[in-house]
Amino acid sequence: MTYVVTENCIKCKYTDCVEVCPVDCFYEGENMLVINPDECIDCGVCEPECPADAIKPDTEPGLEKWLSLNAEYSKTWPNLTQKKDAMPEAKEFDGAADKAKLFSAQPGTGD
After folding, report:
1. Which fold has domain 3-80?
2. Total-model pTM
3. Is the pLDDT reported for residue 1 higher than 90?
């Protein structure tokens, strides 16, 4: 099992989860974070820290697309181990529907 960053992270990119991760398995894209499933130790401390409720265990149904996206982009995006400010529009986009179309494959800046 691993944890997966899902659609609601897009355009929010809260980083409270990064701060508590004991193995630094978060990677930063331009407008969302991902978890490297090979590095995640399944501790679950990140899940309750996400204000957008965007982190889910991979055992939940329907997350295959997001697990694949996390695995792919965690290989090329920079590692993020320190908390940063959320995106300026985070409150506006938190809970918005159909955010997958807003996903950017561009990397973030990392640490």
Report:
1. Alpha-Beta Plaits (3.30.70)
2. 0.96
3. no
